[in-house]
Amino acid sequence: MITEEERHEYRKRKEKNSLKGAEGLSSRDIRCPGCGHKILIAFDDCVGHITVYCTRCHSYQMIDFKLFRLEKKRRLF
Question: Rounded to 5 degrees, what angle do the CA atoms 50, 19, 29 make?
């Protein structure tokens, strides 16, 4: 059985590796397609789809990272 201390060390190790893996990547804001509210921060290596909840317009939005790559350059809001 895993002790709480071992579990804590495992989480710390995962956090450290995640931060190390994100070094050198640039991030971008993902905004709600409905109202323009910032709902997520994504890194360059994000791929695929995700469903997120917008706290401003109270709706779930399907986000395709591929389509939102240039959002920072062509911001509509």
Answer: 40
Residue 48: left (phi > 0), alpha (psi -120 to 50), or beta?
left
Residue with tokens 């709600």: 32
On whether residue 75 sits in a domain, the answer given is: no
Radius of gyration of the chain from Cα atoms? 16
For residue 47, give its domain range: 4-64
Answer yes or no: is 50 within a domain.
yes
Chain segment 3-44, per-residue pLDDT in tens = 999 999 999 999 998 888 888 888 888 888 889 899 888 888
pLDDT at 50 over 70: yes
Given the structure tokens 């469903």, which residue do they identify? 51
